[in-house]
Amino acid sequence: MPKYLIRASLSPEGIGGVLAEGGTARRQVVQDAIEQLGGSLEAFYFAFGDDDVVGIADLPDNATAAAFAMEISSSGRVAVSTTVLLTPDELDRSGDKKSGWRAPGT
Q1: 37 Cβ partners below 8 Å, 6+ apart?
Q2: Range list of H helices, the chain
Q3: What is the pLDDT of residue 96?
Q4: What is the predicted pLDDT for the residue at 58?
Q5: Global pTM?
Q6: 3-87 CATH choice from 3.30.70.260, 3.30.450.40, 3.40.50.300, 3.30.565.10
């Protein structure tokens, strides 16, 4: 199953919600939502800086990951950025695939 890095930035209202509910309650909401989509939550952390929340999740496919991100972002309280993660083995296999592309001017 594909793995995704999910980064979230909370609005002031979103931060207020986390403070009211607690961090473990929010993690459970995220875990339940991911499981409802057929995935699993591997890691979930609150963070300082540009990202307030960082997680790693397994989801069935890119469409599911996009749906999850859009559902969350549409709340207006959380902005989500999703990155597809590759295993070292997947990266090794990518080296065997060639498109014939060339750099400009070469």
Answers
A1: 59, 60, 64, 67, 68
A2: 12-21, 23-36, 62-73, 88-94
A3: 85
A4: 98
A5: 0.88
A6: 3.30.70.260
